[in-house]
């Protein structure tokens, strides 16, 4: 388990190093052409990071709505199950449990 955790750490460290080197090497200004002849000039790494963040936010919003719908449905089904399922009798009314022990001859 420790070896797997170490390999995971090394892998993430390598990904971070590659992203850091790319960010350092791509600092020259880039122009992003938007709608209605609008432009945005910023370092290339900033534009890439902003587009990644915007995609992550859109993905989170897209996942949130189905999850919220599922949670509401699960809550409704659990409430319905409680209504349909009879409550267990109190302990004093239940028959005593008898263990399955073979009788001796």
The proportion of residues forming helix, as a percent range, comes to 55-70%
Overall, the morphology is elongated
Number of helices: 2
Strand order of the largest sheet: 1-2
Mean pLDDT: 83
Largest sheet: 2 strands, antiparallel
- Beta content comes to 5-15%
* Distance between the amino and carboxyl termini: 55 Å
User: pLDDT below 50 for ≥5 consecutive residues: which ranges?
Assistant: none
Q: Write down the secondary-structure element order.
A: HEEH
Structural class: mainly alpha
- Report the strand count: 2
The whole-angstrom Rg is: 30 Å
Can you give keywords for this protein?
single chain, 105 residues, mainly alpha, 2 helices, 2 strands, elongated
Could you explain how this protein is built, in words?
The relative contact order is 0.05. The protein has helices at 2-25, 44-84, and strands at residues 29-33, 39-43. It has a domain at 21-84. The chain is elongated, with a radius of gyration of 30 Å. The protein is built from 2 helices and 2 strands, in the order αββα. The chain has a two-stranded antiparallel sheet with strand order 1-2. It has 105 residues and is mainly alpha-helical.
